Amino acid sequence: MMRAWKGVLGAALAGAAAILATGSPADAVEPAEHAVRAGDNLHLIAAYYYRDPRQWRKVWQLNRASVARPSVLVPGKAIRVEVTPGVTWDIPYEEFRARVRGN
Asked: Which helix or strand (DSSP H or E) is residue 34 part of?
């Protein structure tokens, strides 16, 4: 009886590993640009696009050539981000930013 469960479990794990290895279309990232606004910072941008402000380093790595210091963003400049469908908020960035800042 135990061997039957091990076989079923092994097959299920192998199937799950195959799915994770190939990835699904929802896991595909799409390049996008974000226009920096006055008062923006990498934490805020990461919170919007990745739902995690701690991912600010990811945004910085994508823009190392044009953002020398992560604490200094130039308003009006476009920076690159990678967008995963279904991960960003369902509200526009301006509204997200206003809510975060308590406006």
From this structure: strand 30-35
Pick the CATH number of 24-100 from 3.10.350, 3.30.1380, 1.25.40, 2.40.10: 3.10.350
Backbone torsion region of residue 83, taken as left when φ is above 0, otherwise alpha when ψ lies between -120 and 50, otherwise beta: beta
Structure tokens at 24: 């699904």
Judge whether 79 and 59 are in contact, CB under 8 Å.
Answer: yes
Q: Model's pTM, two decimal places? A: 0.70
- Cα separation, 93 vs 95, whole angstroms: 5
Helix locations, the chain, DSSP H: 2-22, 42-50, 56-62, 93-100
Q: What is the pLDDT of residue 84?
A: 85
